[in-house]
Every structure is written in C-alpha cells, then in structure tokens.
Amino acid sequence: MRSFDLAPLYRATVGYDQIADLMDRVLTKDVSQPSYPPYNIEKTSEDAWRISLAVAGFSDEDLTIEVRENALLISGRKSDEEERTYLHRGIATRAFERRFQLADHVRVSGAVHENGMLHIDLVKEVPEALKPRRIEISKSSRNSDILEGKPVN
Known about the structure:
Layout: H1 7-12, H2 17-28, E1 39-45, E2 48-54, E3 63-68, E4 71-76, E5 96-101, E6 106-114, E7 117-124, H3 141-147
Antiparallel strand pairs: 1-2, 2-7, 3-4, 4-5, 6-7
C-alpha cells in the first residue's frame, strides 16, 4: 500500500485540518473493510440521512449505539445463549463494530430496531451563528462631508 506524506498540506493551509485528517484516515485504512453486518445509507431529505444495518438475531439489549468525537459507533454483542446443536447455521450472530465518521453539526436524531433491521436517523443542524447572513451597507457620514464640496482654507 502506498504511503502519502500530508505534511505539506498542513504547512500550506489554515483551518483545513479536518480535511487533512480525513484524507490521512482514509489513506491509512486497510484495503479490506469488514462487510458484517451489511448496511445501507439513504438520504431522506436535504439535511437528513438514515443508516440501516441488518442485525438479524440481535435483540435491543445486544446492540449499542454511541457518538464520540464526530464518530458514530454501532456495536453488537450477543449475550451468552444456551448451547444449541445446529444442523445448519446461516444467520451470523458474531460480535461486530461499525464506525461511521460524521460531519460537523450532524447528530443522531433517533434509532429504531424492527424486523431484524436497525435504523439510525441522522440530521444536520447548522447553528444560527454559522448560517450565512446579509450585512447591510450604510453610507458614511464622513464621506458625505467631502462630497458636499466644503471649501478648504
């Protein structure tokens, strides 16, 4: 795997640390990503998304959802069951951990577990202070004195 040095990017930019960190994180990950459990990410509106994970065989008590440092962490650990004898075991209930990186101002608005699917709703809420606002331009009283043509000594 190639290794990229992002030090020049850090030296030449101000305020873009998150982009450089994201690029660094993506480039240093292993090529083989875990595929269990399978999931979908759908866009439900302009500023909302839903992550759906197939978690057949897991109960609500077996699943954990946490948000830490702009990362959504979903884990599942099956509680100890009584010993069973299977002729065929096609439903995997092994422990898992899925991690999703969240953008700034994206928060988890809810989670629902139904019919073997775990649905996690996300919404982007930009604070009022960060929303664009229009600044009115007013005329300066100082400039109007100059434009009136007052005599100079």
